[in-house]
């Protein structure tokens, strides 16, 4: 049997490396959970800390059935919001005040974007009224016409639209 030089030294080095690996793999002290997600009102708590006079925050992101992904975040000071004129908000909100218009916006978000596709949807088949509602939604900025007869909800309006609809407190169940 050939003599192995420094066998004892090599075994000692291997034992040290094994001990170091075992120490690295050993369970350490329990990590504290990320308190942001444990606190159900983490956004509110942060707003109260950063804006004691009041602030509004809305944010979200969504993957649309079309494959598009949109995210949005906006923050507004509470006192500024209360002092601002709300006159220009009325027609924008009024444009959402018809069930057919909400159905049109929902259909567009689901990928029915051409006039032909919208007219083919039974819940939207209202003859000439479809064009009236499309114009109202365009005038309020909720829809843009891109190209010939193809509509889209502007990217900067997707999350605010979903939040506005959700803010009604009347969104129930799921539909496809």
Describe what this molecule looks like in 3D.
The protein has 176 residues and is of the alpha+beta class. Helices cover 49% and strands 14% of the residues. It is built from 9 helices and 4 strands. The protein has helices at 7-25, 35-38, 42-50, 78-83, 89-95, 99-109, 115-120, 129-139, 155-167, and strands at residues 55-63, 69-77, 144-146, 150-152. The strands form 2 sheets. Strands 1-2 form a two-stranded antiparallel ribbon. A two-stranded antiparallel sheet has the order 3-4. Strand 3 (144-146) and strand 4 (150-152) form a beta hairpin. Helix 6 crosses helix 8. The longest helix is centred in the N-terminal third of the chain and has 19 residues, at 7-25. The radius of gyration is 29 Å and the shape is elongated. The chain starts with 6 loop residues before the first helix and ends in a 9-residue tail after the last helix.
Main beta-sheet strand count, sense and barrel state: 2 strands, antiparallel
SSE run: HHHEEHHHHHEEH
Q: Taking all residues together, what is the mean pLDDT?
A: 88
Unreliable stretches (pLDDT < 50, length at least 5) are none
Report the β-strand fraction as a percent range: 5-15%
Binned, the helix content reads 40-55%
Number of distinct helices? 9
What is the strand tally?
4
Shape: elongated
Q: How large, in whole angstroms, is the Cα Rg?
A: 29 Å
User: What is the CA–CA distance across the termini?
Assistant: 76 Å
Coarse structural class: alpha+beta
Strand order, main sheet: write it out. 1-2
